[in-house]
Amino acid sequence: MIEQTVAGAKAALATFVNPEKRAFFPKFFKSGPGQYGEGDEFLGVTVPNVRLVAKQYAGLTEAEIYELMNSSIHEHRLLGLIMLVAKWKKAKTAGAQQELFDFYLRLVYEGSVNNWDLVDTSAPYFGMYLIGKPDAMELLESLARSEKLWERRVSIMFTFASIRASKLGMGPADFAPTMHTAEILLHDKHDLIHKAVGWMLREVGNRDLAELRNFLSRYAAEMPRTMLRYAIEKLDAEERKKWLAAKTN
């Protein structure tokens, strides 16, 4: 049996280092000066191999995951989040789920969940905690209005859970959190927010086309072009042309 330690998990990741990926990842995740991932460091380990190590070291505690999350190495933080999501999936009691959600939110506020892949790997799962919570909208609004890019991305990605509620066995789909958060982020300046909002709107449209069309009828003219293109990607060519023609800037 593998001894469950942070040092062991880091050593296991190191066995999968790919020099080509190590050179490529800083460019792909924009870690250069002035870029959104500035200062991030990479080993060059692919996601499937990070997931393999996460399974091998699934016994790490929250305190040990926190240690991983405070690493400057991107793959260490990704490993920690994959482990945390695995714990979330196994949490059956309300108390256990709240503890894990609070821990995740702490990581978000502390800035450890600080690239788009880290957000997208984790936020859609922890957004499940917010389904049916009376203060969910308040939290989403607070995150969406944050000056911090990754908190804003977390806000919209949290709502993926509500979109998928029926599939998750958590009641009927609820598009209101997505639509409300999208309205707040409508004029966000960052391309990564445009992409995430457009993606979530497209997911809504995949389930309820009328809901998407209603949003587009109100906001297509002022949506950032990338957001609009992502939102209408699955529509037929003629309808895409119609909505793009409505764009005024």
Structure description:
The protein is mainly α. It folds into 2 domains: 1-90, Leucine-rich Repeat Variant (Alpha Horseshoe), CATH 1.25.10; 92-249, Leucine-rich Repeat Variant (Alpha Horseshoe). The longest helix is centred in the N-terminal third of the chain and has 17 residues, at 74-90. The protein starts with 5 loop residues before the first helix and ends with a helix. It has helices at residues 6-14, 19-28, 47-56, 62-69, 74-90, 94-110, 116-126, 136-144, 149-158, 160-163, 176-184, 191-207, 209-219, 225-231, 237-245.
Task: Briefly characterize the structure.
With 249 residues, the protein is mostly helical.
Topology:
Layout: H1 6-14, H2 19-28, H3 47-56, H4 62-69, H5 74-90, H6 94-110, H7 116-126, H8 136-144, H9 149-158, H10 160-163, H11 176-184, H12 191-207, H13 209-219, H14 225-231, H15 237-245
Helix pairs in contact: 3-5, 4-5, 5-7, 7-9, 8-9, 8-11, 9-12, 11-12, 12-13, 12-14
Cα radius of gyration in angstroms = 19 Å
* CATH fold description of the largest domain: Leucine-rich Repeat Variant
Counting DSSP E segments of at least 2 residues, the number of strands comes to 0
CATH class placement of the largest domain: Mainly Alpha
User: Would you tell me the structural class of the helices and strands?
Assistant: mainly alpha
Mind telling me which CATH architecture of the largest domain this is?
Alpha Horseshoe
- The succession of helices and strands, N to C, reads HHHHHHHHHHHHHHH
InterPro entries: ARM-type_fold, DNA_alkylation
Pfam families: DNA_alkylation
